Amino acid sequence: MSQNEVGKIHYRPWGSYQTLVATDGYQLKILAVKPQGRLSLQRHAKRSERWIVVYGQPTITIADNCKDYMVTESVFIPAGTIHRLENFTMNDVKIVEVQTGSYFGEDDIERFEDIYGRI
Question: Quick check: pTM over 0.85?
């Protein structure tokens, strides 16, 4: 990612994300998931992610485990693990996402399910 992309808000059907830090080895993002928003059921080959809930009550699926999370709770998603972030509430959800790995491109997303037709 080029440095001119840092700070830019990227809009998606489920909400938006903003990259705060982009460097070799890690990236730091804020994800904002709108009410009833749902990211793809997906996995990444070249990066792991840690999600920290900072606002709202998301439902997070990691492998076969699906659970509601509260503010201050966090989860670790190892590279190669199927996962999804959903917001079934009527309020926004905000997540701090820390990505670590060797590559962070959007083409490292393998989608299995997507309600927005992006498979």
Answer: yes
**Is residue 41 classed as helix, strand or coil in its secondary structure?**
strand
Q: How far apart are CA 76 and CA 12, in angstroms?
A: 23
DSSP symbol at 38:
B
Summarised one tens digit per residue, pLDDT across range 102-119 is 999 889 999 999 999 888
Residue 119: alpha-carbon gap to chain centroid: 17
CA distances from 67 to 3, 27, 58, 64, 104 (A): 35, 25, 8, 10, 26
User: In the Cβ-directed half-sphere of 11, how many Cα atoms lie within 13 Å?
Assistant: 1
Give me the CATH topology for the region 3-113.
Answer: Jelly Rolls (2.60.120)
C-alpha closest to that of 114 among 47, 50, 43: 43
Residue 2 — very low, low, confident or very high, per pLDDT cuts 50/70/90?
low
